[in-house]
Amino acid sequence: MQNKIIDETLILNVISGSTSAQKQFVEIAGKIIFGALSSFHQFDQEDKNDLFQTIFLKLFDDNMRRIKMWNKKSKFSTYLYMITTNSALDFLNSKYFKQKLMSNSAIDTDSIGLIGKKNESELIINKITIDMCKDKLRPIEKDIIELYYNAGYKEKDIAEKLNISINTISSIKNRAIKKIKKDIMQEFR
């Protein structure tokens, strides 16, 4: 089966009111949204389902205003991914989620570490973005990025673990980040 994408033609048909186009849109967009939400380990399935519904309500609310706001210079999947990420981050910052998390007896310590940090949104966006782009990195760059962003190691710890100087680790990490940024910038051109 060929992978289906959301292209300009499909969007125009959705906006014009075609029910078959809307069904196809929901099917494809649903996979993108759940894929993006899978990066948020803090959410249980109920939270993900609620966010899924919220995102579709945002898309179709106000005469499909959000769908119409799509900039055709980028892929719709990227636009949808950003809407999903922003909705998830808003939910993470909500009082409801924090209260739910604190009242849960089996609190996820990783989640607590995110709450209250000034740059929590930036950290999550960085992690998701890096996960999307790291396939284009060399193996050593992937390893360092994985250890630094996903495993939470400091550069010093990575240097000891890989038996490489800390300066080399820092240099490789910074070069990998530049590649990722370049890849992201190309996506939006």
CATH architecture of the largest domain: Orthogonal Bundle
Radius of gyration: 19 Å
Overall residue-averaged pLDDT value? 79
- Give me the oligomer status: single chain
State the domain count. 2
Low-confidence stretches: 105-118
CATH topology (level 3) name of the largest domain: Rna Polymerase Sigma Factor, Chain: A
What share of the residues lie within helices? over 70%
**H and E string:** HHHHHHHHHH
The top-level CATH class of the largest domain is Mainly Alpha
Portion in strands: under 5%
Counted by DSSP, the helix tally is 10
Structural class: mainly alpha
Distance between the termini: 30 Å
Biggest pleated sheet: none
CATH-assigned homologous superfamily of the largest domain: RNA polymerase sigma factor, region 2, helix turn helix motif
Anisotropy-based shape: globular
Total number of β-strand segments? 0
Question: How would you explain this protein's 3D organization?
Answer:
With 189 residues, the chain is mostly helical. It folds into two domains: 1-111, RNA polymerase sigma factor, region 2, helix turn helix motif (Rna Polymerase Sigma Factor, Chain: A); 117-189, Arc Repressor Mutant, subunit A (Orthogonal Bundle), CATH 1.10.10. The protein contains ten helices and no strands. The chain has helices at 8-16, 19-37, 45-68, 76-93, 95-103, 109-114, 120-133, 139-150, 155-162, 166-187. The longest helix has 24 residues, at 45-68. It is globular, with a radius of gyration of 19 Å.
